[in-house]
C-alpha cells in the first residue's frame, strides 16, 4: 500500500470464490405485493412450471379455507362462476371452492450480469451469478374463465329461444385473394410485430417442476451448490488492477449501455426500457405506438423533470397538431420505400391519403368514410386503417376525432399553434394540387363545421345563466302560485315536512284524482298541482321524444336524458332547445307523447340511481301490436324479471292461442333484454 493510505488501514481480507454449479439455474423470486415479514415458506405449493426461454414462472399455492378471514360463500361463488355446476377433471377448483391461487412472474430486469447470490461461510465469500430476477404477483386468469363460462351460458340461452326449424343462412359470395410474395422489409415488420411475438411466446411449452420446501432435504442438498466445489484447486488470482481500472470494472461507463439498446417494436417496450432511449427517440416511439395524444399525457409518460420546451421541439419533428392534440406524422408511420401491409400501395401514396384525412380533421370533428375514399381513391382497408388511427365511428355521424379539442394547450402555446397552422396551409395547397380540389368546396366545408368548435363550455354556461335571469320573474310568480295552492290543500290534508338528505330528491305530488301515467282526459298540464304552467314543452322537444320512443319503445329517464344530450350536441349553437329544460319538463313531455311510466319493482339491493329506476314505455303507437305491449308492461309492473315461457303463457291467456313465436320474438326484441336466462325491461338490468 502507498504511504498516503495509512489513514485507512485494511481491517480484514476475505477470499472471494465464484461458484458456477447453479449459474444457469439460479433465479431470485420477489413478491412485491407482500411485506418481507409475511413469506410463503409455510404455504403449501401445489404445482410449479416454467418457460425457460422467456423466464416465465407460474406457482400454484393453497389457500387456507379454514381461516377465520376466509369468506366461504365468496369462495364457493367464484368456483361456481369459473367451473359451473359440472364436475370434470379439467375444473379449476375440484373442491367446488376457491382453495388455491396462482402467481405469475414478470422479469424485474433483463440484464442480470451485475447480480449474484452471496453466501458467507468460515471467512469465505461464495458468489453465484443469477440467471434471472422475477417478480411474482397473483394472477386473475380465473376471471377470464368465468367470463367465458358466462358468455357460453348466454349463447346457450339465446340458442334455446330460437326456433329449431330456422332456415339456413343465405349463401354468401366469398372473394378469394392470393397473397403476393412477402418482401424482406414486410417480413421484418411482421417478425417484430406484437402479434408475432405473442404467438412465439405461446408456442414455448411449459416445463413442469417439483417444488421442495425450504426445510426439505433436497433443498439442503441443492444449497450446497452455492459454495465453490473445488476450493483447494482454485488458482490464486490476486487483484493486479490499478485503482482506475478497478473502478471502471465496478461502474462501467454509460456509453457501454448503448450496446443493450432495445430493438423490438415500440409497443412491446417497457417504460424502463423506453427511458434508456434519447428523448427524441422516446417521443417518436410513444407517438408511433399511441398515434394520437394530448401534450399533457405525453409529459406524464416521460421522466419527471423533463423540460417541456425540449419536448415541444421533439414532438414537432414527428407529429402534427390537430384540434389541440398531437397526431403522428404520416412519414413516420410509413417510411420511404415501404408499402401498405394490406394492399401493397407505396408509402408516398399512403402518406398523401393519410395527410388528407388529418387535414379534414383540422376542419371538422367528424368525416364520412365514403367522402374520404372518393377523394384519395385508396383501397378500403387502407382508408379504414387511417380512420381507426385517429377517430372512432359514431352512429349516423361518420367517424369522429378520437379526443376532445385541447383548447388549453392552444391557449398556453399560441406560437406553436400558429406555426402548425402555417404548416397545415402548406399541406392544404399541396393536397389541392394532388387531388384537384377546388378552394370553394374547401371553404364551404370549413364554414359548415367551424361554428361547432367555437362554442366553449364556459360560453354555454354563461348563456344558461342569462336565460335563468330572464326566466326569474316568471318562475317567482309560478312559485307563489304553487304556495297558495299548497296552502289551500293543507287545510284538508296535513303533511309532515322533513328535511331531505343529500341522496334524496323531492317527490312529485299529484292531485288525488290525477293519473300516475299522465294527465286525465279533462285535465291539462297546467291544471296539475305540480304542473309547469310557465314551461310548456316546445314542438321540437315533443317531436324528439315521440321519435325516440317510436324507435326504442322502452327507456329509462337516465337514457332519455343521455339521448337528448347527444341530440343537443348535433344542433347548431343558439338553437331553441338549448334553453333550460328541467327533468320535470322532460318527464311531462314523455307523458304527453303517448307514453306511460312503468313502475318496475326493483329489488331492494339494486344499485340503480333514481333516474335509472324511472322507466317509461310507448303505450299507444297506433298499431294493433299495442295490446301485446300492454300485456308485457302489466307483467313488469309486478315482476322485476321473468322467463320467456311466462310471457308467452300470459300473452296466450290474454290474447288467445293465436300468439306465434314471431310475435313473442318481436315483443322481446323491442322492449326487453336477456341476461342470465331471464328477461328484463330495457335499461333495468346492469351487467
Detail the poorly predicted runs: 161-169, 256-267, 444-455, 489-534
Secondary structural class: alpha+beta
Rg, Cα atoms, Å? 35 Å
Cross-sheet strand order for the largest sheet = 2-8-5-4-3-9
DSSP helix fraction: 40-55%
- End-to-end Cα distance, whole Å, is 76 Å
Number of helices: 26
Give the rounded overall mean pLDDT: 79
What does this structure look like?
- This protein is 42% helix and 13% strand.
- It has a 6-stranded mixed sheet, with no helix packed on it. Strands 1-7-6 form a 3-stranded mixed sheet, with no helix packed on it.
- A hairpin with a 4-residue loop joins strand 3 and strand 4.
- Helix 12 (347-363) crosses helix 14 (380-390) and helix 12 (347-363) crosses helix 16 (414-435).
Write the topology of this structure.
Elements: E1 15-18, E2 27-30, E3 45-51, E4 56-62, H1 72-83, E5 100-107, E6 116-121, E7 124-129, E8 132-139, H2 141-161, H3 184-191, H4 194-203, E9 207-209, H5 217-223, H6 243-250, H7 271-274, H8 279-290, E10 292-293, H9 295-301, H10 308-318, E11 319-322, E12 325-328, H11 330-333, H12 347-363, E13 366-367, H13 369-376, H14 380-390, E14 391-394, E15 398-401, H15 407-412, H16 414-435, H17 439-454, H18 457-470, H19 472-490, H20 539-552, E16 554-556, H21 557-569, H22 583-591, E17 595-598, H23 610-613, E18 615-618, H24 626-636, H25 644-655, H26 661-671, E19 672-675, E20 678-681
Parallel strand pairs: 1-7, 2-8
Antiparallel strand pairs: 3-4, 3-9, 4-5, 5-8, 6-7, 10-12, 11-12, 13-15, 14-15, 16-18, 17-18, 19-20
Amino acid at each position: 500500500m502507498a504511504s498516503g493510505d495509512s489513514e485507512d488501514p485494511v481491517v480484514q481480507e476475505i477470499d472471494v470464490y465464484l461458484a458456477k454449479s447453479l449459474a444457469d439455474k439460479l433465479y431470485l423470486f420477489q413478491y412485491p405485493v407482500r411485506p418481507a415479514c409475511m413469506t410463503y415458506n409455510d404455504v403449501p405449493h401445489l404445482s410449479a412450471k416454467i418457460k425457460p426461454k422467456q423466464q416465465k414462472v407460474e406457482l400454484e399455492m393453497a389457500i387456507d379455507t379454514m381461516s377465520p378471514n376466509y369468506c366461504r360463500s365468496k369462495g364457493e361463488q367464484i368456483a361456481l362462476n369459473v367451473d359451473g355446476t359440472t364436475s370434470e377433471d379439467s375444473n379449476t377448483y375440484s373442491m367446488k371452492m376457491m382453495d388455491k391461487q396462482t402467481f405469475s412472474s414478470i422479469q424485474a430486469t433483463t440484464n442480470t450480469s451485475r447480480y449474484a447470490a452471496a453466501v458467507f461461510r468460515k471467512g469465505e465469500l461464495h458468489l453465484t451469478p443469477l440467471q434471472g430476477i422475477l417478480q411474482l404477483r397473483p394472477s386473475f386468469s380465473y376471471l377470464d374463465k368465468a367470463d367465458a363460462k358466462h358468455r357460453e351460458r348466454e349463447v346457450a340461452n339465446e340458442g334455446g329461444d330460437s326456433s329449431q326449424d330456422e332456415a339456413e343462412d343465405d349463401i354468401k359470395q366469398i372473394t378469394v385473394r392470393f397473397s403476393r410474395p412477402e418482401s424482406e422489409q414486410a417480413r421484418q415488420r411482421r417478425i417484430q410485430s406484437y402479434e408475432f411475438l405473442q404467438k412465439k411466446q405461446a408456442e414455448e411449452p411449459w416445463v413442469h417442476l417439483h417444488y421442495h420446501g425450504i426445510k426439505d432435504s433436497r433443498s439442503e442438498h441443492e444449497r450446497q451448490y452455492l459454495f465453490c466445489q473445488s476450493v483447494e484447486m482454485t488458482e490464486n488470482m490476486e487483484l493486479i488492477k490499478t485503482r482506475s481500472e478497478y473502478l471502471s470494472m465496478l461502474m462501467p461507463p454509460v456509453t457501454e449501455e448503448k450496446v443493450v439498446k432495445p430493438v423490438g417494436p415500440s409497443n412491446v417496450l417497457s417504460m424502463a426500457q423506453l427511458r434508456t432511449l434519447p428523448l427524441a427517440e422516446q417521443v417518436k416511439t410513444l407517438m408511433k405506438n399511441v398515434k394520437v395524444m394530448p401534450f399533457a399525457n405525453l409529459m406524464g409518460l416521460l421522466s419527471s423533470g423533463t423540460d417541456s420546451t425540449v419536448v415541444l421541439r421533439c414532438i414537432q419533428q414527428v407529429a402534427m397538431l390537430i384540434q389541440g392534440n398531437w397526431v403522428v406524422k404520416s412519414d413516420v408511420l410509413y417510411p420511404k420505400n415501404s408499402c401498405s401491409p394490406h394492399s401493397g400501395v407505396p408509402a408516398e401514396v399512403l402518406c398523401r391519403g393519410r395527410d388528407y384525412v388529418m387535414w379534414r380533421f383540422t376542419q371538422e370533428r367528424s368525416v364520412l368514410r365514403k367522402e374520404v375514399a372518393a377523394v384519395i381513391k385508396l383501397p378500403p382497408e387502407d382508408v379504414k386503417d387511417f380512420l381507426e388511427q385517429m377517430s372512432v365511428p359514431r352512429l349516423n355521424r361518420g367517424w369522429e376525432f378520437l379526443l376532445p379539442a385541447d383548447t388549453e394547450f392552444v391557449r398556453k402555446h399560441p406560437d406553436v399553434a400558429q406555426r402548425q397552422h402555417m404548416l397545415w396551409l402548406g399541406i392544404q395547397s399541396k393536397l389541392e394540387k394532388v387531388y384537384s380540389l377546388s378552394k370553394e368546396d374547401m371553404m364551404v366545408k370549413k364554414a359548415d363545421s367551424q361554428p361547432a368548435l367555437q362554442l366553449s363550455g364556459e360560453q354555454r354556461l354563461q348563456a344558461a345563466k342569462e336565460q335563468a335571469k330572464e326566466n326569474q320573474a316568471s318562475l317567482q310568480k309560478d312559485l307563489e302560485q304553487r304556495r297558495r295552492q299548497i296552502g289551500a290543500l293543507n287545510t284538508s290534508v296535513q303533511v309532515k315536512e322533513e328535511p331531505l338528505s343529500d341522496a334524496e330528491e323531492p317527490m312529485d305530488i299529484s292531485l288525488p284524482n290525477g293519473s300516475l301515467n299522465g294527465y286525465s282526459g279533462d285535465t291539462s298540464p297546467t291544471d296539475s298541482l305540480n304542473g309547469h304552467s310557465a314551461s310548456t314543452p316546445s314542438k321540437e322537444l315533443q317531436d324528439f321524444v315521440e321519435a325516440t320512443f317510436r324507435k326504442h319503445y322502452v327507456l329509462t329517464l337516465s337514457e332519455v336524458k343521455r339521448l337528448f344530450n347527444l341530440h343537443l350536441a348535433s344542433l347548431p349553437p343558439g338553437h331553441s332547445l338549448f334553453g333550460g329544460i328541467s327533468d320535470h319538463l322532460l318527464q311531462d313531455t314523455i307523458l304527453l307523447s303517448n307514453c306511460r311510466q312503468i313502475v318496475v319493482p326493483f329489488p331492494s339491493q339494486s344499485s340503480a340511481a333514481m333516474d335509472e329506476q324511472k322507466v317509461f314505455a310507448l303505450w299507444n303507437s297506433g298499431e294493433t301490436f299495442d295490446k301485446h305491449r300492454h300485456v308485457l308492461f302489466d307483467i313488469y309492473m309486478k315482476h322485476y324479471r321473468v322467463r320467456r315461457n311466462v310471457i308467452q303463457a300470459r300473452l296466450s291467456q290474454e290474447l288467445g292461442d293465436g300468439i306465434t313465436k314471431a310475435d313473442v320474438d318481436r315483443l322481446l326484441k323491442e322492449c326487453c333484454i336477456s341476461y342470465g336466462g331471464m328477461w328484463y325491461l330495457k335499461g333495468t338490468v346492469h351487467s
